[in-house]
Structure formats: structure tokens, C-alpha cells
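**User:**
Everyone, produce one record:

**Assistant:**
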Amino acid sequence: MQAFVTDISGRLLISKDVLIENKIYTSDSYRTQKSKKRLTEVTNNGAPYVFADSLTPQTRDKVKRVFSNIKGEYAALLRTIDNSGEDCIPVAIQFTAESLHINESFIRSAIETHINSHYPAYTWAYLDAGLHSDSVKGYAKQCALVQWISDFVRNIKENEPNAKRSEVLLRSFRMNLLTALNNIEFEIKIPRSDTRFNKWLDDIMKQMDKGQKPEDIIQIKRQNNSNAGKISDDQFLIAKYFYTNGTNMSVATVYKKWLTYGKEHGWWLENGTYNPPTEARLYQLLAPLKNPLSLEKTDAVTHRLSKIPTATRLLPEKKNHVWVIDGTAHNENVDYGNVRQHIYAIKVADVATLRLVGATTLIGVKEPFDAVRDAILMGIRETGYKPAIIQCDRGPAWKELEGWCEANDIKLYPSITGNARAKTIESLFNMFDNDITRYLKGYSGQNRTAAGINSRSSEKRETKGK
């Protein structure tokens, strides 16, 4: 016997026996509540059930607390189905319809899997629009999402003969879908509030039912903005000159002067009608620009922050976003021919956590590209992440590393020539020497590879380090 079922109208029913077994009621209290009409009992397949919405608010809260373990059992069932490779989404939707418990993780996983595997099929529709690559990907992902939603809704309607039951499942699907989409990052925003999301979803379904394709439904935002294409590059350069040079004019003043100039040169004439762009559009284009005279009239701090390039020593907070790489010699050494060769380690560290994520070792002070690349790949394998930025010095392999990073969509920031010790990893090397290496028997100072006459490591200690 099921604890929860729904009747033909879609109302949730709870088994009387289950209520008593879980001590929601005793037999006497159940009869008392029934006689006082504080619950409505019906018969379903010969067994007594109670309408959930007929219970008092206090009793409904108690039911939710007591039956939380049932939700856990359903969650375990969903995980089992998911791990077996079968489609668990229909089960998740049905459970939400019957228990009001949202299975967001399973819905989100199915959506992300479908989007990531199907969105490339829609990128063609946006490639010629002059958009950023992220925007093209974002619109294509929305197309894949629209197709997935349409297929799922159509499947519910076709496989559920009972109209009321179908409506309950569709409401359950909306609940799960909105909750899942709130935890998925899209390059292009979609409505997230209940009201706007429901309208967005209804509009999509109406258009899909009429036979439209996803790429016809998902239009580029502000594509039909009448102001968007009115300002040519030459016209913008004139406005930019008015704004950034000479007197300190506001955007409103620049706009008036710009319109006068445009009338004199026959700009923005459409079928003999003068139709210039709005001041708001010009403001959007000029807002990022700075007027030198305007800045000079501000306080000294604002002028300095706006005009003088500054650097910060604050480390990034996001793990595995910025890595730094460099090589350092260790005390361990061997005699190779007539030359002493040290163990040389190329190390990769995460700047946010100051954690060593990858390393390769060589004999001799050298930094071949293969060793540099292998250290980075080790870090990617160990952390499971590819960094967005790598900092390095201008060693012998940095040009090859620059090409490799560009091919793998990683930004490389080499230090300025002569300023290699400004890298974050240098402080890690120093801490390693102070906290660990100095206590080893072969420690010969931090100038162990120096070649100057007055900057040589101890021969005695170097011998101990072999």
C-alpha cells in the first residue's frame, strides 16, 4: 500500500494506516478529528485515505516532518535509477507531483547534459550576428534548452491520458525546472522570477506548438533596437572628440553640439525625415570614456586612481583561477663530468591557496618547454581544473609556453624583464627554504647556483648534499 497517492482530480491522498503507524494520529484521535470534520476520509482501491489538504496546518507540518524519511527513500531510488543509466526525470517529476518535494539535482543534471551535447547544433544561427563567442554559446544553449523543454512537455501530454493528472505533472515539471535553472549559469540571462519565467515558458510552448524552431524563438536581445545601428564609427569618433578634448562638457552638452554637427553634414536622414539617435544611446557609448579636464577638477585621490596605472598585491580569491610557474634549484646535486649539477624542479602553484599543484624535476639548471608543460598538465590532472591565467617569467621556454597557452585558451602573463622575482611563487620558494631546506644537512644557502666569485655556495655543504 502506498503512503501517498493522487485521486483523479490530482489531489494528494495520505493513507490512514500510515498516519496511525507513524503516530500522526492514534486510533482514538483519528476518530475524534474525523467526527469534528478536521479531515476528509475517502476510499481508494478498498483502503481508507485522507485528503492532505483537508488536514489542519499543524497536522500537515507534522506530516512533512515525519515523512521526511520517505523523501530520502525516493532520493535513493532516483540515485539508483540515475546510476544505472536510465532516465530518472519522469520518476522525479512524478514524485514532486505526489509529495511536493523538488528533485532539483536530477533535473539540473539532465538539463546540463542535454545542453552541453546539443547546443553546437544551433550556433550557426548566431555566428553572422557579430556577437562575442560567449554570447553565441549562450543563445545556442537556450535553443537546446527550449527543444528539451518542448520534447519533455509533449511527452507528458502524449503519455498521460487523464487531463487533470497531466496538468498536475506539468505543474510539477515547472517547479523542478525553475529550481534547476536557478542553479545553472547561462552566458545569456533567462527570466528567473516565478511570474516572468512562467510567461517565458508559456510563450515558448505556444510558439513551439505552432511549429516554430528554437533558433526562430530565441532572438538576439536588442536586435531590433532602432538606436543600435544609427551611429557609425566616424560619427562616434566626432562625439568622442567633443567629449574627451577641449572644454569639460557634459554628455547632454556634447549631444546638442553633436546633433548640430550632424544636421550640417546630413546625418540621420530617413526618407527626408531627420531621425537622430537618442541621448541615452550616446551616453552608453561615452560613459566608459574619461575626460582629462573633468578628472583634474576632482580630488587628488580620484584623479590618481583614474589617471595613474596602479597595481594591487591582493591575491585572487577563486581557487585554481590563477597559477604561477617557475623553476628552482635544490641542494641535492651530482657531479656530471667536471661540473656539479643540482636537482632542478619546475613547480606550479595556485595563487589563491598558495598550494603546490604540479612539478617536474630535472638534473641541471634548465627549463625546457616539455618540462614546463608537463608540470602544468600535472596540476590540471591533480586538481581537475584548467587555470584561466598563468604567470611566469621570461625564461628560455616562455615563447613556446605562450603559444601553447593561446592554443588552450589560457591567458599567459610573463613578468617584466628584470623583475622576475616579483612573481608570487618566489615567496613560496623562500618559505620552503626557511622552513624545510635549511634544516637539511646539505643546505648551502639560497645562492646555491650562483656563479659570481663573491657569491658561491659552501663547498663543504654542497658535498654533504650529494
